[in-house]
Design goal:
- Forms a multiprotein complex with MMACHC, MMADHC and MTR.
- It is an enzyme of class 1 (oxidoreductase).
- It comes from Fregata magnificens.
- InterPro entries: CysJ-like_FAD-binding, FAD-bd_FR_type, Flavdoxin-like, Flavodoxin/NO_synth, Flavoprot_Pyr_Nucl_cyt_Rdtase, Flavoprotein-like_sf, FNR_nucleotide-bd, NADPH_Cyt_P450_Rdtase_alpha.
- Its cofactor is FAD; FMN.
- This protein is α/β, with parallel strands linked by helices.
- Among the domains are: about 160 residues, Rossmann fold, CATH 3.40.50.360; about 150 residues, Up-down Bundle (NADPH-cytochrome p450 Reductase, Chain A, domain 3); about 160 residues, Nucleotide-binding domain of ferredoxin-NADP reductase (FNR) module (Rossmann fold).
- The protein contains 21 helices and 22 strands.
- The strands form five sheets. Strands 1, 2, 3, 4, 5 and 6 form a six-stranded parallel β-sheet that branches. The protein has a six-stranded antiparallel β-sheet with strand order 13-10-17-8-9-14.
- Strand 19, helix 17 and strand 20 form a beta-alpha-beta unit.
- Helix 18 packs parallel to helix 20, helix 19 packs across helix 20 and helix 20 packs across helix 21.
- The longest helix is centred in the first third of the chain and has 25 residues.
Length: about 700
């Protein structure tokens, strides 16, 4: 290729939690090995690029947040391109490729990327490379890795076509293009990528390490025939490995003294105003022998400016488990340094593109504060982190296994033993004891400790100055990879925090936490723009909320009861609630639902119990989706004839999808239409914001 050929492309990323940025950085690193210059920017930095005048190819990596929104960093960009006055040829000059990140557990999969992609097409932009949609439900890398592999050839084609337009010899261009396979247009980049097979086109020493087989596990192989986190079997154990390029270090940590104060937790949050509020009440809603333990907490927000509507969510700022922090400090050999203040700076001369001080790390705080409040030490390590850990591992066998886990050949092992097993850094350090990472490596690769989101389970109208929420204590049982059981980061912390409220009569040696003390937590609002009661109270609605999915509907019913008391002349539509749990006597969370039924706030209450045995001749339905099918005509009437609303809250995979299938079947039968037509009707209901979901995976 001609040496004077322009080989720059614009690389934009829009990230919420850092995933899209990390992938963009990987593309930037690989670009140099291909003789290309990636001009990388966050999509929010609109003063540093201009798509209206951009002549070079554009690569966009964009994630999705919430229920299908573009990330916060893309909001301004999306608003700009959504301008309805823009002509249809506004971006006719633009050639781009887009990689969207999402999670198919949620209804609007990769909607952030799809929104931008669709709008750029409407404004005349052209693909030089097929759009990739990566699914975090099965593993982003299953689409991301082959998409990046195919990107380079697609860019080469785009550059050649660019030269052709500029008047270069069309003969030379044609011969070059005819010799190159059009992999960019043949890759199947859907979430069903388990059958995707990509052969290496070339081996590049700068970004791929080719390693000959070293028979490290000769003795182990004779007794171990099954792979595990620490052990591989053929073909992986006998393969030459293609592993990622080593990410350049860019953080420098300096220990200082033990004098000073840590920053306030509010300084760690950029999403809005933070409120420190007392926990005034804690109730265990389930019996001790229930499979899951559900708690209800009440917060006092009377003296704050915090406001909410039923259906809103809010976030709790939580710390990592104190014992896990101490254990990590011990393994790192930093137990004596926990209370020392550290100064975190960008390393001079780093090769990392756009290296900057991580926003979630304070300029000055103690080491223990960083590990407790700033870094997600429970995060599943990315392959780039595993690649960096290879360099910190002295044992040859352990080093080889870490290389396998981050390699293309070990992709299925990574998914099975790291990703699907919820392995965290502590698990890795126990499994690979010769691995001794530096503190700067942890700060570079561990993501920000995210605040946890919960649905509000109360009404400010019904209980002024109070906010309630319900949650299950998440449990991670012990297993070969994880020798001790763990609780969820936030739910475990909250449960421990409110133990004195749950068991006030238990003696405690800690006098500071006597009956007179009140524990406080820091929260901030996360309003839900759609999951609210109908604006018109005469409109009927149905609620589906098994388990803790009932939480927002308690707020709905409290609010509706208060409105009925205050406005006796109003017309109120009928209300339905479908609730389910395992056992009627163990985890029927809100038996006071009968009160709403008796006072007329709730018109219909339908419950089911999936694990209770029945002596009835015809077994009762086990799950809410089964109960809904029994009321097919009523569902169709509320949704189609009376233009009512349908709300679902709870587990996505095992409940919400089943409910959606049931509604589609109901619409199909009651309308006398085929299933495809019924699915279109459901899509229209979603679009009209009359079929609403608040679900989690």
């Amino acid at each position: 290729m001609c040496c004077d050929l322009k080989r720059r492309f614009l690389l934009l990323y829009a990230t919420q939690k850092g995933q899209a940025k990390a992938i963009a950085e990987e593309i930037w690193q690989q670009a140099g090995a291909h003789g290309l210059e990636a001009d990388m920017h966050c999509i929010s930095e609109m003063d540093k690029y201009n798509l209206e005048t951009e002549k070079d190819p554009v690569v966009i990596v964009i994630s999705t947040t919430g229920t299908g929104d573009p990330p916060d960093t893309a909001r301004k960009f999306v608003k700009k391109i959504q301008d309805t006055t823009l002509p249809p040829d506004h971006f006719a000059h633009l050639q781009y490729g887009l990689l969207g990140l999402g999670d198919s557990e949620y209804t609007f999969f990769c909607n952030g990327g799809k929104t931008v992609d669709r709008r750029l097409q409407e404004l005349g932009a052209q693909h030089f490379y097929n759009t990739g949609l990566a699914d975090d439900c099965v593993g982003l890398e299953l689409v991301v890795d082959p998409w990046i592999d195919g990107l380079w050839l697609a860019l080469e084609e785009a550059f050649l076509l660019q030269k052709e337009k500029e008047g270069m010899s069309s003969d030379a261009v044609s011969s070059s293009l005819s010799a190159a396979p059009h992999v960019g247009h043949e890759l199947n980049l859907s979430s069903e990528v388990q059958n995707l097979k990509i052969e290496d086109e070339r081996v590049r020493s700068s970004d791929v390490l080719t390693q000959k087989l070293v028979d490290i596990h000769l003795v182990a192989l004779t007794r171990d025939t099954e792979p595990s986190l620490v052990h591989s079997v053929p073909p992986v154990s006998q393969s030459a490995l293609n592993i990622p390029a080593l990410p350049p270090e860019y953080i420098e940590v300096q220990f200082q003294d033990t004098h000073g104060e840590n920053p306030h937790l509010s300084s760690l949050i950029s999403e809005g105003t933070t409120f420190e509020v007392p926990v005034t009440k804690a109730v265990q809603l389930t019996r001790e022998d229930a499979i899951k333990t559900a708690l209800l907490l009440e917060l006092d927000i009377a003296d704050t400016g915090f406001d909410y509507q039923p259906g809103d969510a809010f976030c709790v700022i939580c710390p990592n488990n104190v014992n896990e922090v101490e254990e990590l400090l011990h393994i790192l050999g930093l137990s004596e340094k926990g209370e020392y203040f550290v100064c975190v700076k960008v390393k001079q001369g780093t090769k990392k593109k756009g290296a900057a001080h991580p926003q979630h790390i304070p300029e000055r705080s103690t080491l223990k504060f960083i590990l407790t409040w700033c870094l997600e030490i429970r995060a599943i390590p990315k392959k780039a982190f595993l690649r960096a850990l290879v360099e910190c591992t002295s044992d040859a066998g352990e080093k080889r296994r870490l290389q396998e886990l981050c390699s293309r050949q070990g992709a299925s092992d990574y998914t099975r033993f790291v990703r699907d097993s919820n392995v965290c850094l502590l698990d890795l350090l126990h499994a690979f004891p010769s691995c001794k990472p530096s503190l700067n490596l942890l700060i570079e690769h561990l993501p920000k400790l995210q605040a946890r989101s919960y649905s509000v389970s109360s009404s400010n109208l019904y209980q002024p100055g109070k906010l309630c929420f319900v949650f299950n204590i998440v449990e991670f049982p012990a297993c070969p990879i994880r020798p001790v059981s763990r609780k969820g980061v936030c739910t475990g912390w909250l449960a421990e925090l409110v133990a004195p409220l749950l068991h006030p009569n238990k003696n405690t040696l800690d006098t500071k936490r006597g009956s007179s003390s009140t524990e406080k937590i820091s929260i901030f609002a996360r309003p839900n723009n759609t999951f609210h009661l109908p604006a018109d109270p005469s409109v009927p609605f149905m609620m589906v909320g098994p388990g803790t999915g009932i939480s927002p509907f308690i707020g709905f019913l409290q609010h509706r009861q208060k409105l009925r008391e205050e406005h006796t002349d109003w017309e109120f539509g009928e209300t339905w609630l479908f609730f389910g749990c395992r056992h009627q006597d163990r985890d029927y969370l809100f038996k006071q639902l009968r009160c709403f039924l008796e006072n007329g706030t709730l018109t219909h209450l339908k419950v089911c119990f999936s694990r209770d045995s029945s002596a009835a001749e015809v077994a009762p339905p086990k799950y809410v989706q089964d109960v809904i099918r029994l009321y097919a005509k009523e569902v169709a009437r509320v949704l189609l004839k009376e233009r009512g609303y349908f709300y679902i809250c709870g587990d996505k995979k095992h409940m919400a999808d089943g409910v959606s299938d049931a509604v589609v079947d109901i619409l199909s039968v009651e309308m006398g239409a085929d299933k495809l037509e019924a699915m279109k009707i459901l899509a229209m209901l979603r679009e009209a914001k009359r079929y609403l979901q608040d679900v989690w995976s």
